């Protein structure tokens, strides 16, 4: 039996996102944060076996953009604790989509390819937590577990924390899933993988040489 997923994406309001993008002005950082999230969510919606996408954000205007793509949106339940916010969002996902398996995904994956996300989800061992590490091998970009076991540990050193709590690492070569973007060096790497349309349009106007 093929597992079907609801992907939960926590999204900061663009005004508060990507503070490590030094060298850019506030307008550019806000625009990139918005573009990253839109491209990430669009890739999720195009992924096989992803039946729903739930976005948690406190930005009402941004929520409407996600809803126009076909997402369900809810307010961010805890702006000071990402893992608490994810647990609350997944509780709502369980209410709305009880037959789906939840997967939490970072919102800053502008190169994400549906095929990479699909391969990662297809490789998950059913019945327990699994995760995909980031490109640096320290953090986490994807975490999934059955509703009753959903207990993510995103944050500093999350790869080690997820391993220590029994999570099974997705060991496939999935560069677009692992390439989250926090600074301009990350963005250059993401550009080499191929960017989603929203991000590509903005990056074309920047000097990233």
UniProtKB/TrEMBL annotation:
GO terms for molecular function: GTP binding; phospholactate guanylyltransferase activity. Gene3D superfamilies: Spore Coat Polysaccharide Biosynthesis Protein SpsA, Chain A (3.90.550.10). Coiled coil: none annotated. Keywords: GTP-binding, Nucleotide-binding, Nucleotidyltransferase, Transferase. It holds the Pfam family CofC. This is 2-phospho-L-lactate guanylyltransferase. It comes from Nocardioides psychrotolerans. The lineage of its organism: Bacteria, Bacillati, Actinomycetota, Actinomycetes, Propionibacteriales.
